[in-house]
Amino acid sequence: MSTNTGMGACCMSGTIHSHAEPTGTTTTIGDLPTYVAEPESKDHSKTIVFLTDIFGWEFRNVRLLADLYAKQGFYVLVPDILSSDPIDPSFLQNVEPKLKDKQTAGLIDTVKNTALVGATLGAWLPKHREAVTLPIIEKYMDTVRGQQGVKKIGVVGFCFGGRYAILMAHGKADAAYACHPSLVGIPGDFDNVTKPLSLAVGTEDSLLDMKSVDQIKDILEKKSNVPTEVVVYKDQIHGFALRGDYSSDEDKKAQDDALKQGVTWFNQHLS
Fold it and tell me: How far apart (Å, rounded) are the C-alpha atoms in residues 94 and 92?
């Protein structure tokens, strides 16, 4: 039986980082506006494409993270896969509280947040269904593959983009890393994985429970000819790898560890 994990308030949870300013540039690649973070060497041989969450390619956090990957020697591209139609980042502040606050939230606040999320995502998701989004990403991947100097392509996906990172591991990418993916189909999205795939998930992710994670592990462990891994982060909610709370030492460490997970994975599989 195939199951799909959905989207909810935790897709809109997290913190906007203000500790730094993005240092990359913007351009157009193919048809898509793209944020570009180059390594100091200017080498494009190990290219990574970021597939964003619902907050899109202009979201500060995703650009700062792209800069960090670039400092590790990767040429990083963050395309506008949402066709200039992201969810407003203001939802990060008022829809979903941090885990410690969520645990003490009252019924009225919970109902209010659920209604707000439903109204927002209910209108947004059909415009960005797979039939619309997947061709955009596949065309972009083909364009990047043809760029001068590009030898191997990795994909990092977050939340909404996490599922598409998994789909790129069906053959379009040379390696993929999916952070707290949403809307995944189990087993279908994982049965067809043929390229190295790493996953980062939190134990408190309400969109991908531990039973589903165990199912995913079982599927991937049977792929003896394909490198895979699933790393579980204790007490982390949906979005932690991109939108973690830097005022919390535990959450900051989890986000930093998720970055190390991705860097290590791509150093192994894009070389």
Answer: 6
Torsion 126-8-97-61 (CA) sign: negative
Q: DSSP string covering 193-243, please?
A: --S-EEEEEETT-TTS-HHHHHHHHHHHHT-TTS-EEEEEETT--TTHHHH
3-class DSSP state of 37:
strand
**What is the CATH architecture assignment of 3-269?**
3-Layer(aba) Sandwich (3.40)
Domain definitions of the chain by residue range: 3-269
pLDDT tens string 164-175: 999 999 999 999
pTM: 0.88
- For residues 169 and 190, what is the distance between their CA atoms, to the nearest angstrom? 9
Show Cβ contacts of residue 36 under 8 Å, excluding neighbours closer than 6 positions.
24, 25, 26, 27, 75, 76, 77, 78
